[in-house]
Design brief:
Structural class: alpha+beta
CATH architecture of the largest domain: 4-Layer Sandwich
Shape: globular
Number of helices: 26
Largest sheet: 6 strands, mixed
Number of domains: 3
CATH topology of the largest domain: Aldehyde Ferredoxin Oxidoreductase,  A, domain 1
Strand order of the largest sheet: 2-1-6-3-4-5
Length: 609
């Protein structure tokens, strides 16, 4: 199939060996690329029960057939077994690295082993080298990228970790372009455990496509279509930051560790506040609708903001000052920590302090204490910094005191920035996300607010699966950004057209959706294989949303109904072809071409027909 090289680069850091792997053709047909490749590689090659921070874990950078060829396709999926959750972990990252890897003649980079000394991998036009990173170890992610570009040239794509990844912070991420980050479930820690500081790639090979003229035409036409959409100009002004005001109006803006859905100081951190201090606009490569709004933080340095980091490092910790929020965000970007999880662990510490479960005094909205704590976490300084570096699940298990009810995570991954006291479909989206509580796979909350937020219905389950298929299936395998479709109404029909021009293969939307179902079920099989069991409680959000009603805003008194939530969850399992435990049925595995997983799963659980 055109559009893919059919080759991946396999690097064993322990042996300092580099080899080219010609992956089986059914990878491209049945899994397309990106997340699909990552899940398949982990199933095929990761020894079950592997310690995520051991040399045996497999680190994957996987492109898709559209990477580097289509509008908003400057992205790559990073994946591994997660040290934060113990299950499948991935994320996508906007970076020139993905394009450089593709133009070097590869569709993926697979890394195993552990280097004896800090190293980085440099790839250029089909050649790969393991180089010393001893002089880079300890540097910030931003400084690391700058110095690698000084050596290899400004056109090289770089993805790297900061000190948090080196110190194995369980929610450390991979960083590129001084503010793009991916791999929330601790993929940065996996890199750190391998003593891999960075990967870099540059190339000038022409990616093989079926119809080069049509690919170029579709790129130009699609860019023009996106820029002509209603709402484009406002998007360029505020990007995702407009969600702060929307979240406040809809009572879903997380405040004080998800106690509330409104925040009195929201105007001081919203999109208009950002516009007043905006100094630049950044984007991923090949982007037609840039979203990286840059402001000057309270320390006088530039920081790139979006909704998730502002809500989690602002309202969720009671901080109503955009400059201070931006400074916390910059600390996260430089040290290589996920901003969502960082905001969650800081809020957890503030609530634990309020309840006197820890001796440290950290008050809501105290930006100085938050900055010190963020740095302590990145460097694992002190008992509290080291504890929070493990994430809220482990922290709550260690401090006790009923804190498990308000440790805001699912499967160990901290919840992203939407309160669900009155949003059962979004709660289900968090519960069933394939990596833990993340909005990326199904941002259903906007639809739910529009169509009726208090109902528990089969229609909501259907919509959730539809969005997972599209967002977490199609876009994560092609690999391309979802924003043109989500935010501006860029029609989905573009993607089969672009796919055909690139690959030469005609694929219907129904076939795309079947691939998505195959990948979701394979990822669930990976979770079951690693955990050795499954239970609906593992797909259930924290008790706070069920036990503690909102006390502020127009929805005061609202909370989730646990029995009705589990009714929806069972409907979800049924429609996915999974049993009442949440484990894929044999018939489903066979139907989706995943029968090869059955023998391994049957070593751990009893599979039902």
């Amino acid at each position: 199939m055109k559009g893919l090289w059919g080759k991946a680069l396999w690097v064993d850091l322990s042996r300092r060996e580099v080899r080219v792997w010609e992956y089986p053709g059914d990878y491209a047909v049945n899994y397309i690329g990106g997340r699909g490749f990552a899940a398949k590689i982990l199933w095929d090659f990761l020894p079950p029960g592997t310690d995520p921070l051991s040399p045996d874990n497999i680190l994957i950078f996987a492109a898709g057939p559209l990477t580097g060829l289509a509008v908003n396709s400057g992205k790559i999926v990073v994946a591994a077994k997660s040290p934060l959750t113990g299950g499948y972990g991935d994320g996508n990252i906007g970076s020139q690295f993905g394009i450089g890897l593709r133009r070097s003649g590869f569709d993926a980079l697979i890394v195993t082993g552990r280097a004896r000394k800090p190293s980085y991998i440099y790839i250029e036009n089909g050649e790969a080298h393991i180089l010393s990173a001893e002089a880079l170890w300890g540097s910030s992610a931003v400084e690391c990228e700058r110095r690698i570009k000084e050596v290899h040239g400004g056109g090289v794509g770089v993805a790297c970790i900061g000190p948090a990844g080196e110190n194995l912070v369980k929610f450390s991420v991979v960083v590129s372009q001084a503010g793009r980050a991916g791999g929330r479930p601790g993929i940065g820690a996996v890199m750190g455990s391998k003593r891999l500081k960075a990967v870099a790639a540059v190339g000038d090979k022409e990616i093989p496509v079926a119809d080069p003229r049509e690919v170029r035409k579709l790129y130009v036409d699609s860019v023009g279509d996106i820029k002509g959409k209603d709402g484009y100009d406002f998007w360029v002004r505020q990007g995702t930051m407009a969600t702060v005001e929307w979240g406040q109006t809809a009572s879903v803006l997380p405040a004080y560790n998800f106690r509330e859905g409104v925040f009195d100081g929201y105007r001081l951190i919203d999109g208009y506040s950002m516009e007043a201090s905006k100094v630049a606009l950044r984007s991923c490569p090949l982007c037609a609708m840039p979203c990286g709004n840059v402001v000057v933080d309270s320390g006088g340095k530039e920081a790139e903001l979006d909704y998730e980091n502002v809500a989690m490092l602002g309202s969720n910790i009671g901080l109503a000052h955009l400059g201070h929020v931006a400074r916390l965000n910059r600390i996260a970007d430089e040290t290589g920590m996920d901003t969502i999880s960082l905001g969650s662990v800081i809020a957890f510490a503030m609530e634990a302090s309020e309840k006197k479960l820890i001796k440290d005094k950290i008050e809501w909205g105290d930006h100085k204490a938050a900055e010190r704590l963020a740095s302590d976490i990145a460097y694992r300084r002190g008992s509290l910094g080291s504890l929070l570096a493990e994430g809220v699940r482990i922290a709550s298990e260690k401090i006790g005191g009923g804190s498990g009810d308000w440790a805001m995570h699912v499967k160990g991954l901290e919840i992203s920035a939407y309160d669900c006291h009155a949003a059962p479909a979004m709660a289900l989206a968090y519960g069933t996300s394939p990596i833990g509580a993340h909005h990326k796979d199904a941002w259903i909350i906007s639809w739910e607010v529009r169509t009726g937020r208090h109902e528990y219905s089969e229609a909501k389950v259907d919509k959730l699966i539809e969005l997972q298929r599209l967002r977490g299936g199609i876009f994560e395998t092609l690999v391309a950004c979802r924003f043109p479709w989500i935010e501006l109404g860029f029609e989905l029909e573009w993607y089969p057209r672009i796919f055909k021009a690139v690959t030469g293969r005609t694929i219907t939307m129904e076939e795309f959706l079947e691939v998505a179902d195959r990948i979701y079920t394979l990822i669930r099989a990976l979770w079951v294989r690693e955990y050795g069991t499954w239970d609906p409680q593992m797909d259930t959000p924290p008790a706070r949303w069920f036990k503690e009603p909102l006390t502020k805003g127009p929805l005061a008194g609202a909370k989730l109904d646990l029995e009705k939530y589990h009714w929806m969850l069972q409907k979800y399992y049924e429609k996915r072809g999974w049993d009442e435990r949440g484990i894929p049925r044999k018939s489903t595995l066979r139907k989706l071409g995943l029968e090869y997983t059955i023998p391994e799963l049957e070593k751990r659980v009893t599979l039902k027909e």
